[in-house]
Each structure stands twice: as structure tokens, then as C-alpha cells.
Amino acid sequence: MSIELKNISYTYMPKTPFEHLALDDISITIPEGKITAIAGHTGSGKSTLIQHFNGLLKPSKGTILVDGVDIGKKNTEAKAARRKVGIVFQYPEYQLFEETIAKDIAFGPRNIGCSEDETQERVKQAMDFVNLDYDKYAHRSPFQLSGGQKRRAAIAGILALQPKYLVLDEPTAGLDPKGRESLMEKFRRLHKEKGTTIVLISHNMDNIASYADNVIILNKGKVTMEATPEEAFSKKEIISQAGLELPEVKTIMNELAQNGLEIQNNAYTMDKAVEEIIEALRRKGKC
């Protein structure tokens, strides 16, 4: 199954002097069981787009299907479909509001009708997943945590809902390199162990190169490309027009090719780049 958007358009403040077309006739599919990246510069429509995935925004035109169900309808089936999609917004730590971490994480499961026993089990599992020790942190105020711990607590609150589709809006924004890598590896683990479909919203093309199975490029509210990472990163002009940069590894490989190293130049991650370079040097008898 999938999340499918058909001819979605969205206009902010219609019929006013401030009218702005944020999404323009977008049709995309988020396949189940994959990591799909949506990339675009600030103002490209990324955040507006993902708020349509679970009905936070209703399109001015078009239809959104989650596992074949039209989530724009007002019925029990549509409500259940909307709950399959969990969104972790940029800087989710600003959304913490309860007096303790455990209560904050428990808010979602209680709101969807989980029993108290199931709620507590989900809280413990979610805290364990983000490496927040339950005994140590459950009864602390969220506002006593460090910035990174707040980020993990907020993410745990979404994970406790056990969404089938997890949407991450710039999840590593503001984190140091070690924190970024640690957090992304947790999401990769969730994807592999639980089969969770992940949608990664980012303008960090290195993250996208490392984790994504599919890439969607947005530019000024329109989809300009929907492709595999290998194909996407071969279209330098489209990437540049969207205000984005190629992954650092891909830029280096392009320069090596331009300077005469006979490589296939398909690599966009470090491991693949090393393999290509070694193979090229072997062919030249230098390795």
C-alpha cells in the first residue's frame, strides 16, 4: 500500500491580497516499506505538503489516499487512515507541554483510546528506543532536559503512536554531526526492525544520499523530479534549480571524473565512492 497524492494544490489565504499558491498540482506516491526523501529549498512547499499526509491541512484541490482510503472524508475509516501517519515536525522539542516526560509521551496513546497498561508499555518502548532510561527520566520535567534529550522525548511521543508511516521534517536540524548520525541511525533501525515507512524531509543531500530509497525534488510548489538517488544526483541542473547542492561525495566524484580518472561516476555515498576509485586505480595499474 502507500500514501498517494493526486493533483494536490493548496493556497494560503485565498481571495485575499496575501493569497499564495504553496502547492501546484502535485501527484506523488510514497511507497510502503521504503525511505522516501522529499527535498527542496526553504519555501519550496515541503512542510505544507507533509501536513496533507494526515489531514492537518485539507487541499484546495485534489485527493489524498492512505492505503487506498480517502482521508478527506468524514468517516471512521478515514479517521483510522489518518492515524497511520505520524509527523515529527522540525524542532519537535518545542511541542513538549506535559509536566513529566512520561505523561507527554503517553498523551497520544491515551488520546487514541489505548488502555492504561498498553499506554505505559508504549511509553517504555518508545523511551527505550530513543535511549531515554525510563527509571531515570520518566518523572522528570521535559524542561529539565538538554536540547538533544528534548528532541528524543518529542520523537518518542510520536513513536508511541506506532505509526505505519513516519514523516520526519528536518529531524537533525540544530544537532551536531555526532547527534545527527546517531538519530538517523535510530530511524534506520526502526525502518529495518519494524518495517516502518519513513518520509525524510530535508535539504541536506548527504543525509538523503545515505538513507533514501527514493527522492522527490520540490521547487516552488511543484515536483520537478521523482527518482532513485542515483538518477536524482545525476541531474545536477535540476538539483541546482531547486536551490540544492549535490551530496559532497558526488561533487568530489564529478571533479575526479573531470580530471581524468576513469570512474563510472555512479557513486553518491562514501562506501560506493571508495569502491569506484579503487577499481579505477586497479585498471590503471596503480592499486
TrEMBL record:
Boundaries of every ABC transporter domain copy: 3-245
PROSITE patterns registered for this protein in UniProt: ABC_TRANSPORTER_1, ABC_TRANSPORTER_2
Assigned EC number: 7.-.-.-
CDD domains: ABC_cobalt_CbiO_domain1
GO molecular function, one term: ATP binding
Record-level GO cellular component terms: ATP-binding cassette (ABC) transporter complex
Membrane protein topology class: Peripheral membrane protein
Domain of life: Bacteria
Major location (coarse): membrane
Family, per entry: Belongs to the ABC transporter superfamily. Energy-coupling factor EcfA family.
Subunit structure, as described in the record: Forms a stable energy-coupling factor (ECF) transporter complex composed of 2 membrane-embedded substrate-binding proteins (S component), 2 ATP-binding proteins (A component) and 2 transmembrane proteins (T component).
Protein name: Energy-coupling factor transporter ATP-binding protein EcfA2
